[in-house]
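Final report, results section. Input specification for complex C-07:
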Amino acid sequence: MTARVGIVLFPGTNCELDVAWAVEQLGGDAEMLWHADDTVRGVDAVVVPGGFAHGDYLRTGAIARFSPVMRGVTDFAAAGGPVVGICNGFQVLTEAGLLPGALQKNVGLSFLCQTVELRVETNASVLTRLATPGAVLRVPINHFEGNYVCDDATLRELREQDRIVLRYVQNPNGSRDDIAGIANESGNVVGLMPHPERASDVLLGSDDGVVLLRSVLAAAEDASVSRVSA
Amino acid sequence: MKFVARIDVSHLPGVLDPQGATVERALPALGYHNVEEVSIGKTIRLVVDADTAEAARAEVDEMCRRLLANPVIEQYTISIEELVTT
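Structure output:
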């Protein structure tokens, strides 16, 4: 059964077609989810893609979290559905309280657009279930506010519960504990600053993001099967 | 009654403030070697209709918690004054 991946579209989102292309290359069905609809329309996985949702006014993701579609995404996440926030999508998920911490301006105040090395820290997440812990992936980043911040108690919890999904090999933005991506308690909601969809074909310079996207599709297929058999 | 609320949003102590740090490094280049603790936040001004100043403050505080500030990285102070129309 083909996995249906819903891609959330806010005004100002700009990576939705890249994600859709990558999902379809890998055999999934991509479907746009409009921010003003309060449903995820029965998809098997949700991706909140990169961009500048609602202009990133006030703070990145601060307005987007109140969009009607986020009610659908929150319910879907609570039911165990796979949800991945990429870049601005990660910022939206933290503002929405689906993931802890916050993302603030990069140390050095530079907009960073470069390929970085990421170390897979766990395979206990919908983004990394097919990846090998310890593997290093080359994936682009493209952000001004990717500096992950959280308090000591949150960091301890993330470490103890194996929820740090990806770390930068060389920290480009000042993120606490070199964090590039984290998961919620059950591993079904993941946020990351790097863009796996931009590393989904050798023609793009790297296809190291494929294992991450395939992981999401595999999680989506499981979600789909369990819904049919339930 | 209408009240003017001024909300001062700044970084929580201990949270790195990249803008403040950059400006702190820039000022000595202009000869100001006597500056420290530069912090950059934002000011939000709004007019709110409420029965009393206390009610206005309570409502603005709720707005801060829900939207205007992110308690994970930011703190805020609120000042409330009656709107004076000339």
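The first strand of chain B starts at residue 2 and ends at 11. Chain B has one domain: 2-82. This concludes the modelling results for the funded period.
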